[in-house]
Amino acid sequence: MTPIYQTSTYVQEAPGKNKGYEYARTQNPTRDALQNNLAALENGNYGLCFSSGLAATDAIIKLLNAGDEAISSDDVYGGTYRLFNKVFERFGIRSKFTSLTNAEELKKHIGSKTKMLWLETPSNPMMSIIDIEAVTKIAHQSDILVVVDNTFASPYLQNPLEFGADIVIHSVTKYLSGHSDLVMGAIVTNQEGIYEQLKFLQNACGAVPSPHDCFLALRGIKTLHLRMQRHCENAEQVADFLESHPKVEDVYYPGIPNHPNHEIARNQMRGFGGMISFTLKGNHMEDALQVLSGTKLFSLAESLGGVESLIGHPASMTHASFPKEDREKRGLLDSLIRLSVGIEDAEDLMADLEQAIG
Ligand SMILES: Cc1ncc(COP(=O)(O)O)c(C=O)c1O
To answer: Does ligand 1 lie within 6 Å of residue 120's CB atom?
Structure first.
């Protein structure tokens, strides 16, 4: 097994002559093993790990300069929106959030200052699907760098570099580590120039993960394929159950044939993942809160992608940083409930939802 190199510095042979490692912010052998592993999973040449998914996002946005603009799909993770809007805006990097489920719409938003396109597909929490290949072709005509947050799909279900994307980012915290026991981010790219810039930022800004967390992530990844198969099987059953429930209004799951971009999901993914959102008839916040506090197997918690099922309320939890008006424009209603379907017994999960929804 990969050893945990629990070291901050490395003995050097002579001044200016090291054995490949100098200082652990810059390189660490356990992190190297994980970085190579993640690159291989995404069919990429280069991997870099960060102390959180947002630290990885932060490094990517730092590829831009003051005056540049980014376009992002509109229902991205709330923290991504907050970083663009509340942090980088102050440093002169502007961002525009728009629906990209129709690829052609992108053309309307590209200007001379647009330098980055940020996609999240499936998206959080509306499970929208973006055609990665179609938007990438449009973006590349204007030399725009395409970044795909592949957290929800995991590399087991989708490899954005194969559709032309320049950079893939993950919150390793989620499916990759899989056991809700660490916080980490990762970036994979095929382009040496981009890798060199990001590696510089990883060291210069310093948001690196601990060797122990790298070991845990490597251990989690060993079962990624098994876990993802079960997440997908369970989520398909839970989505069917919710679709036929009399108190449920809408179910958002890319595996449902009437999902607006089901065909695109079918083409670019090898399965539909473990994440489902749904709304309740009448759209009352109190009804949603009752479901959220009524489940026994689904634990009420932020995050996703672990083996245990979680239930969450985007409007008050993950997406509280979006203004209510913006939330509702995106379909993120007060009664919207998000499920991270785990790998437990599917019948038990459905019985739990049945008793909580009532
Ligand atoms: C899709 C997505 N991207 C990025 C992040 C940020 O990752 P982290 O929490 O590891 O910083 C999250 C976190 O929930 C997420 O869901």
So the answer is: yes
